[in-house]
Design brief:
mainly beta; Immunoglobulin-like; 52 strands; rod-shaped; Ig-like_dom_sf; Ig-like domain-containing protein; signal; Ig_sub2
Length: 580
């Protein structure tokens, strides 16, 4: 062939090739085209089809080549299905087409991401797990990272699974709705695992309680008190509050209300109700606040006999001075004390004086304080500390002559304090005897004779011992008085023995008492020897005494006559006169 012919053929070939259309650019798509696939994200275990589409190339018999090469398994088709996807299936996918010997360009790469299934989370809105009957709560199933996917949901408990099964449920709860809630998601044939359980507790609506701080329902004018509305178990909830009386409802309506410088107009009943969202609790019970003028304290003395006897106690005793505020029980008072005009230290409600002395005498007064409020001063109570009195022992009847078998009352008397709560100690001689009361009665025998004394105690204080009072018992023995010689006629100048004899009393250590008293010269013996004169004429009596026993008196009469004188005859007539 000549060179000219070849040139023409080349030119024609060039013209024909230059006018041919460029091959179309393929596009990679993913099927199914769900919301999750749309973002090129699937979950392990899901199935996806990767498809190579050549726009305008319909009807042509294309063969395809894929990247990555694992997709190129003959025959090489336009789509590639991945069943049970794993993370290794993730990556970029692109393709090109070929017909005859002509290839298209490579498509743009589409990236497929394969994720592990996300574990759902159940949430509550509002987020409190403690819900009250009648409130509305939304239970929501959230799958993190699963946004945009066409999920359907399965719930436990099963009663929530009503088609279409959605990601949340709005419930106006009753106590029947208490329990555990969990969910899982499903996309195509893929299921997530079950969420952790969240427990919803539905309780009966709480009843608020109104409290006072400090907790006294009785307060005094000028004091400060906080009225608080407390909802048991409702901690952490965003409550708003409504109060009665309405004057407390000043927005924002809070859970407590502070009353400073209280007046009587602040007294009355206080109650409250709580609200969160559209839910209301019940009204609380009303608590009554009483505002009164501060009381006047009273000073008392304990033990009680110090009150009965005008505050008189005895040195060495213990007394408690107490400040009492009528109607102020339970309040946290501090106290101020005075004795006279001098402040004394104690700040408590009582002041104990141990082993009182006369320096503790005086007028005691007090006042009380709680918070910044003071009561007025109490009236003065006077305490007198005296030396213990000396008792006296008396006998009833008070006769000096007491006979065996008589009934006698022995009494210990303390002048001026007859009604005090004394206990007594008694002695007869040096021996203790048992009665502890102020009086005791005996039917006397000879052994009851003796010297009686007593002392008294109350609290830790003792009186001194009384003086001794002697009880002498007259026993039924009558002595015999005899004269020696026993002549009926005794003359002046003669010697006579007057003797007191006690029949059956031999061996006893008797002493004797005589009448006339001139015979009672110690030692007082049972006989007296007298050289008599006419003045010794008269009655003689004696009785015997041993220890504290006396016999009866016994009597005898002595008559003393003039002594006869013998005269000589010449003496008779020596004088002028004759005496006959």
């Amino acid at each position: 062939m000549s060179d000219d012919v070849l040139f023409i053929i080349l030119v024609l070939s060039t013209v024909i090739c230059g006018n041919a259309e460029a091959p179309p650019e393929p596009t990679v798509t993913l099927q199914p085209s769900g919301t999750q696939i749309h973002s090129s994200v699937i979950y392990s275990g899901e199935t996806v089809t990767v498809r190579c589409e050549i726009q305008g190339g319909e009807g042509a018999q294309w063969t395809y080549e894929w990247r990555p090469h694992k997709a190129n398994t003959p025959p090489t088709s336009r789509e590639y299905t991945i069943s049970g996807a794993t993370k290794s299936d993730g990556g970029g996918y692109s393709c090109r087409g070929k017909r005859d010997s002509s290839w298209t360009e490579w498509s743009k790469s589409i990236t497929l991401t394969v994720l592990s299934p996300s574990k759902p989370t159940v949430t509550l809105q509002p987020s409190r797990t403690q819900i009250y009957s009648g409130e509305t709560v939304t239970v929501r199933c959230e799958i993190r990272g699963g946004e945009g996917a066409q999920w359907t949901y399965e719930w436990r408990p099963a009663r929530l699974n009503t088609p279409p099964t959605s990601s949340e449920y709005r419930i106006t709860v009753t106590e029947f709705d208490s329990g555990g809630y969990s969910c899982r998601g499903r996309a195509d044939r893929f299921f997530t695992e079950w969420s952790d359980i969240i427990t919803l507790t539905v309780s009966s609506p709480p009843k608020p309680t109104v409290t006072l701080q400090p907790s006294w329902t009785q307060i005094y004018s000028g004091e400060t008190v906080t009225v608080r509305c407390e909802i048991q178990g409702g901690e952490g909830a965003q409550w708003t509050y409504e109060w009665r009386p309405a004057k407390l409802n000043t927005p924002p309506t809070s859970r407590e209300y502070r009353i400073s410088g209280a007046t009587k107009s602040d007294g009355g009943g206080y109650s409250c109700i709580g609200r969160r969202g559209s839910f209301y609790t019940q009204w609380s019970k009303s608590i009554t606040l009483t505002v009164s003028s501060p009381p006047k304290p009273t000073v008392t003395l304990q033990p009680s006999w110090t009150q009965i006897y005008s505050g008189e106690i005895y040195s060495g005793e213990t007394v408690t001075v107490r400040c009492e505020i009528q109607g102020g029980e339970g309040a946290q008072w501090t106290y101020e004390w005075r004795r006279g005009q001098v402040n004394i230290r104690p700040t408590s409600s009582e002041y104990t004086i141990s082993r009182a002395t006369e320096s503790d005498s005086g007028g005691y007064s007090c006042r009380g304080r709680r918070g910044s409020s003071w009561t007025e001063w109490s009236d003065i109570t006077t305490l007198n500390v005296l030396s213990p009195p000396k008792p006296t022992v008396t006998l009833q009847p008070s006769w000096t002559q007491i006979y065996s078998g008589d009934r006698v009352t022995v009494r210990c008397e303390i002048q001026g304090v007859e009604r005090a709560q004394w206990t007594y100690e008694w002695r007869r001689g040096q021996s203790s005897i048992h009665p502890t009361s102020s009086v005791y009665t005996i039917r006397v025998t000879e052994s009851d004779g003796g010297g009686y004394s007593c002392r008294a105690t109350r609290s830790s204080s003792w009186t001194e011992w009384s003086d001794i009072t002697t009880l002498r018992v007259t026993v039924p023995i009558e002595p015999t008085v005899t004269l020696q010689p026993s002549w009926p006629q005794i003359y002046s100048g003669e010697t006579v023995t007057v003797r007191c004899e006690i029949q059956g009393g031999e061996g006893a250590q008797w002493t004797y008492e005589w009448r006339p008293a001139k015979l009672n010269t110690p030692p007082t013996s049972n006989e007296y020897r007298i050289t008599v004169t006419e003045s010794d004429s008269g009655g003689y009596s004696c009785r015997g005494r041993r220890d504290y026993s006396l016999t009866y008196w016994s009597n005898i009469r002595l008559t003393v006559s003039c002594k006869l004188q013998m005269f000589h005859p010449h003496q008779l007539f020596h004088q002028k006169y004759l005496f006959l």
